């Protein structure tokens, strides 16, 4: 628990006297310079070579570095260049050189030195120059501190943060990189202030600032935007996985390591995340969207993180209207299920159907699920809607079985909230019992997001459903986090590769490569692969060639109302003969 920051621990003091780092391999020169500068109001940190100098700069953030040009190991020029490349552009470097030739002087300036002193050193000149540079740096830093720093935490304030975010975005755009913006808002901060007083509140904020800074890389920006809100910029992230592990780490650290006294674990945070460029390509949009996500995290019960999703921004009026008409539609039974066959592409046999919701709107006609499911998920209506779907699909399945349609399975799409807000396992047990069906006639489809959120312990529920004999399919694979790392903990049997990747194959080289990669991954994990959205024979042949076993798509049939599906099934039986 070395990371624990006690709120009443004041040991870490900010260095008040400016530091000068002095790097020279000759101890006698170091001694002389130290002697000459002794009377000045700053501390001297000695380094015997370039590596030591870099370490000292990292540690002390000096007001000046004096670098001997010729040292064993890396020389002064290289050291200077590395310092500048490593983000210490604001630390002035003065070269000490015996090489009083034009080339060396030129080189010193080239690598970013502001000045140079020639050997043999004229001590009075040295003293004068050092004093004036340090004074300038100290003055500049003071101004910066006042204008751009938050006085309580010494972190960048909102102003400096805005500037850093702009720069980070520019850099990301240039390198075609991603970055994550995390807004971290303390939970129950008001409670600390109210019950322990403002002084404790201030200490809490300071502790959080320290923890955040320590938990991230030097290059990342941590800022305090005000109150109990912090912002973090992480550049060069490699997909959502990276952002997830950072957010996860921060939320764990904040929950476990900030204490008000020795016994009490006190605080936690809600984190909203927006990713550049997906969630916005300018600072304003990214901030707005991270903020929206943060509020959603608060709503979802705090102490958690939440990625921004576009549907969070649907305007409030539209939302309310849609929500009301959806509730009405539930009462008036305007929802129907269409069924799309799933095919074993090697045996050319139907193995089951996927249940897909449709809204038969009296005025607007048929509304597709993508236009209402996200909101239903948001407002919780997905729970009764999902229950209705499971019950209706089960009854239909029973009917088909009694009519002699063999080998029918039905696959049900599930949303995360259905795991959190209801007892799914009990519902499936009840429905299976009621209709006298076999659990193995059911499959559930979940997305990676559901696994990652793991709300209401998705893992435990899936394990029970799987043990009952149900098939677990991972839907829309490739569109979310595309990380199979999560899979090994979950009882997944089938991976459904999203139709976006099947689209355009085999002509689209990019999509073909993605499909190939996913086929390879699933083969390694001994999972069955189902390709969605197969529309033509060329796609089918390619997928077959890659060892994909199952398929779904307009090539065979779109999703059909129950009676039409029955016709499709029977016709096919005849045609296969
Ligand atoms: P999904 O589960 O990935 O379903 C596949 C979607 O692809 C369906 O769209 C289907 O009609 C469409 N599709 C299938 N084959 C082809 C093809 O060859 N070409 C093209 N262009 N499209 C094809 P649909 O029915 O609009 O469903 C969209 C999404 O809505 C579903 O994606 C699923 O995530 C969600 N959804 C549908 N019903 C439910 C439900 O009962 N509960 C939940 N939670 N989500 C549902
Ligand atoms: Mg599906
Ligand atoms: Mg899908």
Describe the structure.
The chain is of the alpha/beta class. The chain folds into three domains: 11-147, 3-Layer(aba) Sandwich (Rossmann fold), CATH 3.40.50; 158-308, Reverse transcriptase/Diguanylate cyclase domain (Alpha-Beta Plaits), CATH 3.30.70.270; 336-564, EAL domain (TIM Barrel). The strands form four sheets. The chain has an eight-stranded mixed beta barrel with strand order 13-14-16-17-18-19-20-21, surrounded by four helices. The protein has a five-stranded parallel sheet with strand order 3-2-4-5-6, with helices on both faces. Helix 4 (102-110) links the parallel strand 5 (93-97) and strand 6 (115-118). It starts with a strand and ends with a helix. The chain binds ligand C2E and magnesium ion (MG) (2 copies). One magnesium ion binds next to strand 18. Residues 354, 413, 445, 475 line the site of one magnesium ion.
Largest sheet: number of strands, sense, barrel closure: 8 strands, mixed, barrel
Which structural class matches the secondary elements? alpha/beta
The CATH architecture name of the largest domain reads Alpha-Beta Barrel
CATH homologous superfamily grouping of the largest domain: EAL domain
Identify low-pLDDT runs.
1-15
Give the beta-strand count.
22
Overall, the morphology is: elongated
Structural domain tally:
3
Please report the first level of CATH classification, the CATH class of the largest domain. Answer: Alpha Beta
Strand order of the largest sheet: 13-14-16-17-18-19-20-21
Bound heterogens, unique: ligand C2E, magnesium ion
How far do the termini sit from each other?
A: 69 Å
Strand content: 15-25%
